Amino acid sequence: MSIEEKFDSAKDKIVGKAKEIEGKLTGDKVREAEGKAQGVVGKAKDAVADVKDGVKEAVKDYKEDSKKEIDK
Q1: What tens digit of pLDDT does each residue of 8-35 get?
Q2: Dihedral sign (CA 5, 13, 57, 3)
Q3: Taking the model in full, what pTM does it have?
Q4: Secondary structure (DSSP) of 5-50
C-alpha cells in the first residue's frame, strides 16, 4: 500500500469518525450517517489496496516461477 493510499484511507476514516461524533452530539442523524459511511469508505479503500498488493505479489511470484521452469 502506497503512502498516498494509506493517507487517503486514514483521512476518510478520521473525518468520518469526526462527522459521526458531531452528528451524535448534535442529534443530527444525517451527519452521523454520513460519518459512518465515510468511515466505511476508508476501510474499503484499505481492503482494495490489500487485494491490489496481493495480486501484484501473486503476479510477481508467477513470473519468477515461470522463469525457473523455462531455465530448467
Answers
A1: 999 999 999 999 999 999 999 999 999 9
A2: positive
A3: 0.74
A4: HHHHHHHHHHHHHHHHHHHHHHT-HHHHHHHHHHHHHHHHHHHHHH
